[in-house]
């Protein structure tokens, strides 16, 4: 399958829709679709934000193939030369908030692919990424419309995020999270149980929300992460910087002030 998109962040959703169709056509497991979507989100957002020296429209070609148990993703653009295979992965320091934005993306891409190849030809960048398909996974599920809502839960508040937490919605997600925290109590539990995957842009939105909640003298805890999101958070060093629990009750209890002696 092949798709041409323009250099606008909103176009990443068209690529995500193609991934969904591609996985359905080849009966690929749900985890594979999530992984490829995270990879494409990181690669395409980097191309869109940094590859072009002007503000003119540019075409970006995305090609997906599946053969012999392997998914191949190819991204081609006419931007400035950039070889991501030569970029050193950032040190996963304990204080992730001090790491410059973008460093998480290369970790995500490398952890979700088996090989990455780059070439420059005819003034164009061509990036080829391959991922072996793991057997015994569940079938893909239809995507949900993105939304953020919040409600009172005892002395705290639960913020529910639904849908892909990726580059096209990262700013909106951050703004809605910050608004809920600014106008709410001190303790927040963020429900990610209906979020199929999170890109590095989504991670930065969560970090910004945690920073504000902590600055206000309270805190924020995530809960309901699926296996793939939790694994990605572990690989990128987010677990430990952002607190994670299994349920809303556990999350809010974690933030309860200590009882007076």
Topology (elements, then pairings):
Blueprint: E1 2-6, H1 12-25, H2 30-50, E2 59-67, E3 70-77, H3 103-112, E4 115-121, E5 124-132, E6 147-153, E7 156-162, H4 167-183, E8 187-194, H5 200-215, E9 219-223, H6 227-235, E10 243-245, H7 248-254
Parallel strand pairs: 7-8, 8-9, 9-10
Antiparallel strand pairs: 1-2, 2-3, 3-5, 4-5, 6-7
Helix pairs in contact: 1-2, 2-3, 4-5
Descriptive notes:
The chain is of the alpha/beta class and 261 residues long. The chain folds into 2 domains: 2-132, Histidine kinase-like ATPase, C-terminal domain (Heat Shock Protein 90), CATH 3.30.565; 147-254, 2-Layer Sandwich (Transcription Regulator spoIIAA). The chain has 7 helices and 10 strands. β2 and β3 form a beta hairpin. The longest helix is centred in the first third of the chain and has 21 residues, at 30-50. The model has no long low-confidence stretch (mean pLDDT 86).
């Amino acid at each position: 399958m092949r798709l041409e998109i323009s250099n606008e962040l909103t176009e990443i959703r068209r690529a995500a829709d193609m991934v969904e169709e591609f996985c359905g056509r080849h009966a690929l497991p749900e985890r594979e679709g999530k992984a490829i979507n995270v990879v494409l989100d990181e690669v395409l957002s980097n191309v869109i934000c940094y590859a072009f020296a002007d503000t003119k429209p540019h075409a970006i070609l995305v090609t997906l193939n599946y053969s012999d148990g392997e998914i191949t993703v190819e991204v081609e653009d006419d931007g400035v030369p950039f070889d991501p295979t030569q970029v050193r992965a950032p040190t996963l320091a304990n204080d992730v908030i001090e790491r410059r934005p973008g460093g998480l993306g290369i970790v995500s891409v490398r952890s979700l692919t088996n090989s990455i190849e780059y070439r420059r030809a005819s003034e164009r960048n061509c990036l080829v990424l391959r991922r072996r398909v793991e057997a015994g996974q569940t079938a893909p599920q239809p995507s949900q419309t993105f939304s953020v809502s919040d409600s009172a839960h005892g002395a705290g508040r639960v913020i529910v995020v639904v849908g892909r937490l990726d580059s096209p919605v990262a700013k909106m997600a951050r703004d809605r999270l910050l608004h809920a925290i600014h106008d709410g109590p001190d303790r927040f539990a963020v429900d990610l149980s209906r979020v199929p995957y999170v890109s590095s842009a989504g991670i930065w939105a969560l970090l910004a929300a945690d920073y504000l909640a902590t600055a206000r003298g309270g805190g924020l805890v995530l809960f309901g992460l699926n296996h793939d999101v939790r694994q990605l958070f572990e690989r990128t060093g987010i677990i430990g910087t952002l607190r994670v629990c299994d349920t809303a009750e556990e999350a809010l209890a974690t933030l309860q002030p200590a009882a007076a002696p």
